[in-house]
Amino acid sequence: MKRLFSNLTFQVLIAIALGVIVGLNFKGFAPTAELISKTFISLITMLIAPIIFFTIVLGIAGMSDMKKVGRVGGKALLYFEIVTSFALIIGVAVANIVKPGAGFVNHTVADTSKLAVYEKAAAEMHWGDFIAHIVPGNVFEAFAKGDILQILFFAILFGIGLSRMGETGQSVIQLFDKLSKVFFNIMKIVMKVAPLGAFGGMAFTISKYGLKTLQPLAILMGSVYLTMFLFIFVVLNIICRIYKFSLWQYLKYIREEILIVLGTSSSESALPAMMEKMEKFGCSKSVVGLVIPTGYSFNLDGTTIYLSMCVIFLAQVFNVPLSLAQQLTIIGILMITSKGAAGVTGSGFIVLSSTLAAIKIIPVEGLAILIGVDRFMSEARAITNVIGNGVATIVIAKSEGEFSPPAP
Question: What's the CATH number of domain 2-399, 2.60.40, 1.10.1200, 1.10.3860, 2.60.330?
Fold first, then answer.
């Protein structure tokens, strides 16, 4: 029983239930609940810039062997881009078909003047402005303002520059690795108060908008789980068939790692075991050592599905009309911001908030709506991330002729 109460998923479940009860019976608590949820969001957003910077830099600098960067690394990055693009497109398509955010709230959801500003911003969003804005005029200013796109651009250049230093750059890489772990430890501390954030977010949502808000949230969760199920058993299964290995055999082989991820909601918790399993499954040590860690920054299939669906969901919630061209622009932005996600609990929520900040057309306060259910979608995206990275490793190993299946 003690172990059950210490489980974060159970704590969030209880917090959500309490939030619903408080929201229904204590309408006057709404301002306090909103303050609680905003404080929790601030705790997360304060970590966005450093986590994304260190993740990108270490991911690129880790490819210190230029021969592998040119061959295995190049193949891996190409594969990552193709597959995650499919994930993004599928997520956007399902969100547009199901429309989980349609009818979520009425005209009282937000100040109409604010919505008019967002709608105008949506109409004026163009590729040219987006590309021009990526390059920071001042790097320190970009970090001070938390401009995610500019930080990403600088991190990529920094990582490439660091990788070219060879052995002399190892001290910097080691320092960055330690700093990265510090921020991940802070994130773990922050996630301990996730139940409080979930309580505040749900209490505020229910007290302000009523029980009807639960229905579209359930539809969103169901849509995300369905999309990830289809991605694994359709898209990844097709890839497995093309490269002549069984998806079911692979899933059976990593079933313990999948259960670990299910229990922790963190794909990073299974990283060491996955590297060992992929070697035993038949992939060469060099391919595993390059693809698996890189995939944790660049091949987060589950996170990209989650991001694309949640962005479209929030656009529907706030009645922000998005044309096909604008949705393609958002996909382009997500292809960049999603690369800053790490395989830890809360990473998808971090990148979602950074994406909303980057596109500046959907109210960031909409994140409060998702706090209550984000935890339950994290299991699905973490499992999808782990499965996708394993498939990527096998594909690259097979393409390099460095795959020797285990004896039956």
Answer: 1.10.3860
